[in-house]
Amino acid sequence: MPLVYAAALELKPLDAAPGPDLFHEALRRWIGHRWPTDHNWFALGEPDGLRDDNGGIFRWEPYIEGDDALLEFTWRHFHVGDSEISWSTQAAYYARAGTAKVSLRVSNTGPEVSSPGSLLTTRPKLFCCLTETFSVSQDGYICNEHPRSLDADDIGDFVRYELFDPTRNYPVILLSPQPDGSFLVDPTKISSEFTGLGKVFVMSSAAATFSLTDELERKDLSCFHGALRAYLPGLSLKSNPFEHPLLLSKRMVDSVARMRLAYILGFMTTKRWVDDPVLHQLRDERGLKAAERRKALLTSLEQARGRAASSQDWETIAVEVDRDNKALLRQVEELTEQLREANATIASMKYQLAAKVGADFESTQEHLLLPQTVFEAAEYAQTHLSDRLTLLDSALASAAESPFSRPMEVYRALQDLSEISEAMQKGPLGKNLDDAFAELGQDYASGLSETTPKRLRQQYVFRLDGRPVACEEHLRIGGSSHDPVSCLRIYFTTKVLKDGKIVVGHIGRHLDVLST
Predict the structure, then answer these.
(1) Burial grade of 61 (CB within 10 A; 0-12, 13-18, 19 or more)
(2) 171 near 228, Cβ under 8 Å?
(3) What is the DSSP string of 422-435?
(4) Residue 358 pLDDT
(5) CA 157 – CA 155 distance, rounded (Å)
(6) d(CA 418, CA 248)
(7) What is the DSSP letter of 495?
(8) Diameter of the chain measured on Cα atoms
(9) Pairing status of strand 134-138 against strand 57-65
(10) The predicted structure's pLDDT at residue 180
(11) Which residue in 41, 100, 36, 106 sits closest to 74, CA to CA?
(12) Residue 204: helix, strand or coil by DSSP?
């Protein structure tokens, strides 16, 4: 049963109420509206379990012994619109030696994460319910604090002691302002969406974004112009920028794009999940206490047989037997659910074997973080390669219309084009453009055939600062099939430069020539 979210949280009550009571109430706020109306909400100290009309299962298993506590709640339900897939949220509150924690895990019986049709999730709503009555910490930082604001003077320490901290094992979520200092999305909203998925920071001014770029020494690792970035653990000056998810301004305002990032970060919690031995100790002690209670009950029953017990004695024993039988029934139901999960896992493994799915999560994760469209590749290039390359509005417009299926190849081609542009700014290349692009693995064409008529050449003329500029040189991606899904062209000019930079006029379908 694929685990898609896992968190180990440390809790401190925000008021004087006992932690178990606050956890019990947080569960009611989270799931109370789904609890069957004909069944009383479960009591704090009494085990309970039931199945609702939709096939969902609720199970409550408390254990309180002095200052020690273990309160486990499980909710299983079918996926919306697909009864073949079920979800499970397991929450365990446990306290010992004055420290209270919660283990929170979400899994489903859908395909493994590396398989087609896999289902991800962000942090469960129960997490937010816990922050209402507890100070919640994980990975060493407090989750329900307001995001820290960073001024330009703070950036140096932020980069050195937060981003580049080799012991950091959590994402840092960084929101940048627009050049005028405003935010495309309220920082409070961003904080509420990503709390629990990473430590949230907000840069207070455009000056802070410039300082960030200077400290990182790389524009493509930075965050500016209203963008949102998640810096994952292991960041260094040599990091691949696509390993640290970036939502540029146009995607950042899209709630679906932010949710996709939240799904990725949600799954990453499973990679740093570690079982707490204290939780297992308390489970063992709970099991031992249950066995002792059952043994004492059987002894009482045997003693009652050997004497003339009163009806009240028999009633007391009957109540205890009934309670114990219900506990055993819940154990049977749990084992049945575990068997169902095991069968689902076997079915998933068989599916993967039949489909010959060899990808692991790292490759799946990489795919989710890379540009998903040609426009996203062009937008990323415009933002991070603008000091070496000029993309005209026409280039972005054509990119937005392109259905080309391999957008990352487009970005790599633009990146190579920017390297040539940078080299040309420094002086003569010392070689012809054909050889320079060939060394980078790019298929370069210097222009159009001399027989191309004027009416067709007009397609290759674009506007640069209000004046016409011909972009007839081009990089060929995907051969010459002219199918826009598998064939793409980047048209540019090295003859008319903008501030010494190569100008790109079109990114997309193959423009017409005599043969077409």
Answers:
(1) buried
(2) no
(3) HHHHHS--SS-HHH
(4) 37
(5) 6
(6) 20
(7) E
(8) 116
(9) unpaired
(10) 95
(11) 106
(12) coil
**pLDDT-above-70 percentage for the chain:** 84
What gap in Å lies between CA 506 and CA 378, rounded to an integer? Answer: 10
Position with higher pLDDT, 331 vs 75: 75
Residue type, 393: D
What tokens were used for 474? 């081009």
| Among candidate residues 63, 59, 61, 86, the one with its CA nearest the CA of residue 75 | 59
Q: What is the pLDDT of residues 156-176, one digit of tens each?
A: 999 999 999 999 999 999 999
User: Of 349, 346, 266, 359, which Cα lies nearest the Cα of 4?
Assistant: 266
Q: Which residues contact 65 (CB under 8 A, 6 or more apart)?
A: 285, 289
Measured CA to CA in angstroms, residue 450 lies from 453, 456, 469 at distances of 8, 12, 18
Element (H, E) at 60: strand 57-65
Contact between 414 and 404 (Cβ < 8 Å) = no
**Is residue 133 a contact partner of residue 26, using CB atoms and an 8 Å limit?**
yes
- Tell me, rounded to whole angstroms, the distance of Cα 149 from its chain centroid: 23
HEC states along 107-157? Answer: EECCCCCCCCCCCCCCCCHHHHHHHHHEEEEECCEECCCCCEEECHHHHHH
pLDDT in tens, 248-268: 988 899 998 899 899 989 999
Closest CA to 507 of 377, 330, 384, 369: 377
Q: Are 459 and 513 in contact (CB under 8 A)?
A: no
User: Rounded distance, CA 469 to CA 227, Å?
Assistant: 31
* DSSP alpha helix (H) spans, 310-432: 311-355, 361-369, 374-384, 393-401, 407-426
pLDDT tens for 366-417 read: 445 678 899 999 998 998 898 899 999 999 999 999 999 999 999 999 999 9
Residue type for position 34: R
* Helix boundaries (H) for 254-305: 255-268, 277-305
Q: What is the pLDDT of residues 344-358, one digit of tens each?
A: 555 444 444 444 433
Q: Which residue has the higher pLDDT, 472 or 295?
A: 472
Q: Do residues 424 and 494 touch, judged by C-beta distance below 8 A? A: yes
Which residue(s) pair with 444 in the sheet?
475
453 strand-pairing partners:
none
- Three-state DSSP at 178 gives coil
The DSSP bridge pattern shows strands 172-175 and 199-203 to be: parallel
8 A C-beta contact, residue 321 and residue 298: no
Tell me how crowded residue 411 is: count the other CB atoms within 10 A of its CB.
Answer: 22
- What is the C-alpha separation between 354 and 71, in angstroms, rounded? 41
DSSP state of 198: B
The number of CA neighbours under 13 Å toward the Cβ of 152 is 9
- Rounded-to-integer distance, Cα 185 and Cα 175, Å: 9
